[in-house]
Amino acid sequence: xxxxxxxxxxxxxxxxxxxxxxxxxxxxxxxxxxxxxxxxxxxxxxxxxxxxxxxxxxxxxxxxxxxxxxxxxxxxxxxxxxxxxxxxxxxxxxxxxxxxxxxxxxxxxxxxxxxxxxxxxxxxxxxxxxxxxxxxxxxxxxxxxxxxxxxxxxxxxxxxxxxxxxxxxxxxxxxxxxxxxxxxxxxxxxxxxxxxxxxxxxxxxxxxxxxxxxxxxxxxxxxxxxxxxxxxxxxxxxxxxxxxxxxxxxxxxxxxxxxxxxxxxxxxxxx
Length: 271
Known about the structure:
Layout: E1 3-10, E2 19-21, E3 23-27, E4 30-31, E5 37-41, E6 59-62, E7 67-71, E8 74-79, E9 87-92, E10 95-101, H1 104-114, E11 118-122, E12 129-130, H2 133-136, E13 142-143, E14 151-155, H3 156-163, E15 179-182, E16 192-197, E17 200-209, H4 228-232, E18 236-237, E19 242-253, E20 258-260, E21 264-269
Parallel strand pairs: 14-15
Antiparallel strand pairs: 1-2, 1-15, 1-21, 3-4, 3-20, 5-11, 6-7, 7-8, 9-10, 10-11, 12-13, 14-19, 16-17, 16-21, 17-19, 18-19
């Protein structure tokens, strides 16, 4: 059976709703515009659905004019695509870097949606972060605002396997992948070293450890069935001290190329 791209997703605003797409440009930081915007506290600390599931109330749309944010009860907010704004320090986990503040109107909008004082920032033209070389290797992998790696790859058969163990099925969107593959056996992604898609090569560098986000309905923000207890019974990684589902990837070749839905993939497995 051929291995193909089943889904492509971009998440312009970190932890807000994603955008399914049929074609995506590979930029130096991963999928073009992916996690280029973020909500932070006044002290610059990043926010995600881990603590703020109401971020799912924010829908995103990329247009020729900019990034449009919408939420029920609020007028749409347009943020420019160009990296401009006053620089301010921000923090993502242990990484301290710079974000560009998107102004008081944007801050008031996201504050209204989330119900607490927050700011909206976007990544500078030259990001100040890169993927951890301990896993990503010597190939420089610049980052916008993802947790730690530019691309998250998931396998449809792995979700099918997990859903067979759960009392109810979860949709793939709960795991917020950028790229979903089909045609692989369940959890074959654990052993894949690289994926070649035409002129593009993605190197899988680290299993993705999971938190509470997959229990969150990506439309309502309501917590529901948590798959972690079941995953922990057969997906606990003793080295990473966490439950894993999906693989983090970096771009080894192909910046400036496009990925398309249905494209055939050639995988190389670890020795």
